[in-house]
Each structure stands twice: as structure tokens, then as C-alpha cells.
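To close the chapter, one final illustration. This time we ask the reader to focus less on the individual chains and more on the assembly as a whole: which components sit near each other, and how the overall shape emerges from the parts.
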Amino acid sequence: MKFFIDTANLEQIREAQDLGVLDGVTTNPSLMAKEGITGRDNILKHYVDICNIVDGDVSAEVIATDFEGMVREGEQLAELHEQIVVKVPMIKEGVKAIKYFTDNGIRTNCTLVFSAGQALLAAKAGATYVSPFIGRLDDISTDGLNLIAEIRLIYDNYGFETQILAASVRHTMHVLECAKIGSDVMTGPLSSIEGLLKHPLTDIGLAKFLEDYKKGN
Ligand code: E4P
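The assembled structure is written out below.
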């Protein structure tokens, strides 16, 4: 299972990269704005900065919502760095753009996916990744993890190669449940990765080992 971090914060990206378990980064326009990154040139530079920190794939989102605009932006984003994956929203023009990018060797991440039908369309268009937003479904009393299971079943039925990227992950239980279902990737905040580390018995056990070592030395 690949671990992506869902942020545009360079410090947190570095921290996750230093842990040695990071496989990539996802961003979106809201995450960029949160870091105060505005203006096309600054945004493009920030993507390159992120690529220079991590070894894996970095999702960069198009802003256009028409086919021509998405293609224009996506080609510019893909040119920035070989690690860039073009993030395209699940709308009609987006499906056409994903198919275009697939046919032209540009990798894509189909974002804002909230149903199995949308995920099926993304796979048919050849998306590299599909991003079902599990946290946002949970927010409206709909089981986000169930959507991951449905997509897993459909993709396995037909051998679709599109990777399921569980997005809008909020906490460690989302990560663990996605791992059980067989999600290919999860993207979440640094806390959802670091939270996996924690167990009080580990802390108690380590304190005891160190105490006993000191007694004998
Ligand atoms: C995915 O790529 C999105 O950036 C993200 O996971 C959305 O998460 P949120 O629902 O916490 O904003």
C-alpha cells in the first residue's frame, strides 16, 4: 500500500519523507491556498519544490473545467517534472481529458469521486489513479470505506489497472481499514501516518528496557 501525504506544506512533506515511508504527495487548490501559495507562477514553482523533496508521484490539479483548458493546463503541469500526475475532476469534460492524457502518455489522478459509477468511468478512461473522498462521505453519514470496497470489487472483476487512491483520509482507522480492503494508495494528513506509530505498551516497554539496561551498566 502506498502512503501519500495530502498537503502543500513543505515542512510536513519533508517530515514524512524523512520517516522513509512516503510514496507521494497530493495537493488541491484549497491546500495550496492554505499555505498562501497564489498566482500561477508561484503555484507551478511550488509543485517543482515538492517534487524535489519526495521520490514519488505528486498530484497537481487543473483549474480549467473545459476540455481544451484542462488539456492545456495538464500538458503544462506534466512538463514541469516527471513526477507530476495531472489531477482532473470527475466531470464530463474531465473524463474526456483523462482519455486524452492517457492516449498521450500523461498520467492522471481523477479527483472528487464519490460513487462507484464515477470510479468505473475513470478506469474506462484510463486514469492512473482514482480518488474516492472517504472522509467527505463520512461527513454526510455515508460510509466512505464501503465505496472503497465497491471500487475494489469492480476493478478486480475486470482487471482495471487504475489504482484506488483513498482520499480525504482523516485518521489512522481510515488508513487501516483501507489497507484491509486493499486500497492501492491512501492520502492523508501527516497525523494519519504518524498516528500509526503510537501504542502505550511500546512506550512502557521501552522505558522498562532502558531502565533495566541502566541497572546493569
Ligand atoms: C485528495 O486528493 C484531496 O486533496 C483530499 O484528500 C481532500 O481531503 P479533505 O476532504 O480532507 O479536504
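The CA atoms of residues 40 and 74 lie 13 Å apart. The radius of gyration is 19 Å. With these observations in hand, you are ready for the problems at the end of the chapter.
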